[in-house]
From TrEMBL:
Residues 42-290 form the Glycine-rich domain. It comes from the Bacteria. Residues 130-169, 183-207, 258-282 are annotated as: Disordered. Residues 138-148, 184-193, 262-282 have a biased composition (Gly residues). It comes from Halopseudomonas oceani. Signal peptide: none annotated. This is Glycine-rich domain-containing protein.
């Protein structure tokens, strides 16, 4: 099983192979014709004839945001991209679901892993919660952010991302006041950068994801969720489908945002008036080869 990035600067060579599975589209990139198979749910990639060299993108489901007063943003699902050979035959494709947030004060839930055969991307880590005490986020493809500081004197353990797939979640720091003044959860990590640490600002952004042009145009995947806050506006999630953190204002505009479907984005953290975190976004698997 491979849990790191296998990258290649070379375009896959054209072959006589044929394949089925997922949603199939043909694209042209700089005069080179490619066939693209996009899986938004689990299935199989069936290759007939010769083995085929493919580009791939595998993104796991994002973690859900933490609940309560100042929940941490959910970590993005792990992201793998590169080039590999796939033999003739049937190859399992697994598309992981995003983590489902608890109703109110719970810690976020990790997303599910996605896979293309032995290439496995780890689900994003759930965000921590903050209610009477602060809880750390959970490690995953990218780590979830911690809940905001309550009365603790030492910051929580930082939730880590899987090497080669994502980054760490943010934590509250000693710069964040004890009490009610701008308690903020840490931002969830993204595939491209770590989530923001929480200071005395009401905004802890989710880490940005990474761009892929596997379908012909640049698209971002695997952004972390923004941390929830009891002051100011909610923090934005990272590029690549991360959900925004909740704010203390009333009304649905200030609820925690969910990670976008089929991006692996993490869900936003909850706030005091809107304690429910956002759900994580589902993952995706994309395969392309020259025709």
């Amino acid at each position: 099983m491979i849990r790191g990035v296998i990258a290649s600067a070379n375009a896959p060579a054209a072959t006589g192979a044929a394949a089925t599975g997922g949603t199939v589209t043909d694209i042209d990139v700089g005069g080179i014709a490619y066939r693209v198979h996009t899986f938004t749910e689990s299935g199989s990639f069936e290759v007939t004839g010769a083995a085929v060299e493919v580009d791939y993108l595998v993104v796991a489901g994002g973690g859900s945001g933490g609940g309560a007063n100042t929940g941490g943003g959910g970590g993005a699902g792990g992201m793998l991209q590169g080039t590999t050979m796939i033999s003739a035959g049937s190859h399992a494709v697994v598309v992981g679901a995003g983590g489902i947030a608890s109703a109110t004060y719970g810690i976020g839930v990790n997303g599910e892993s996605s896979a293309l055969g032995g290439l496995i991307a780890d689900g994003g880590g759930g965000g921590g919660r903050s209610q009477i005490s602060s809880a750390a986020g959970l490690s995953g493809g990218s780590g979830g952010g911690s809940g905001g500081r309550w009365t603790e004197s030492s910051p929580p353990v930082r939730a880590t991302g899987t090497s080669g797939q994502g980054n760490d979640g943010g934590i509250w720091t000693l710069a964040q006041s004890v009490g009610t003044n701008y308690r903020t959860g840490g931002g969830g990590g993204g595939a491209g950068e770590a989530g923001d640490d929480a200071t005395n600002s009401p905004l802890s952004y989710g880490g940005d994801g990474l761009s892929s042009s596997i379908r012909g145009t640049p698209e971002y995947f695997a952004g972390g969720g923004g941390g929830g806050t009891n002051g100011g506006g909610g923090a934005a999630g990272g590029l690549g489908g991360g959900g925004k953190g909740a704010a203390r204002y009333t009304g649905s505009d200030w609820f925690a945002g969910a990670g976008l479907p089929n991006t692996g984005g993490g869900g936003g953290g909850g706030s005091d008036t809107n304690p429910k975190g956002g759900n994580g976004g589902s993952g995706i698997v994309i395969i392309r080869y020259r025709i």
